[in-house]
Amino acid sequence: MNPDTKELKGGATELDLEFSNYLAIMDCRAVMRLPYKWRCRMATQAEDCKRIINFFNYFRMMYCTIDIDGKWTEIGFMFLFLILCVIILWIMSFNIDSFFSPALKIVSLKLHMNEYLAGITFLAFGNSCPDIFANLMPVRAEAPIFTIAVGNALAIILMSGGTVCFLKPFKMNGHCVIRDLLFLLLG
User: What value does the mean pLDDT of the chain take?
Assistant: First the structure.
């Protein structure tokens, strides 16, 4: 027996205990370091993979359903997923251009809002929705959801607005700017 290993009850050692509970303490990222033939089994049995993945278990999909068995097959499927993401982004941009932009213009006219303020408000909600969904996942369950969403939205809006003002200076109506900024900050 190794002098560094302690003996527990029943003649078992710490190494035996760790080996019997390795699926409970194994990190899900360790699946990527295993040979391809073992990745499906570990993706389905590791407790961490079940805990951190809510909607789509990519490891199970790639290594069990698709049955990826080599590096080049994995790269090919990642390239296909990338193409799928680009197609989804193109469809989303088409829908925004066709439906959301005219609806936003109508809403801003009905509420007597400045079109730019309506756009910035829509941008703030659009920027904070992924953060809220990500913070509702158990990976970041301990994080304060609202403050992260507001902080990210304000940082993106102020950085993009500051960049526009820096690159192309222009004159603005002071009263409208103060009103719009207060509405944005308090909204």
Answer: 76
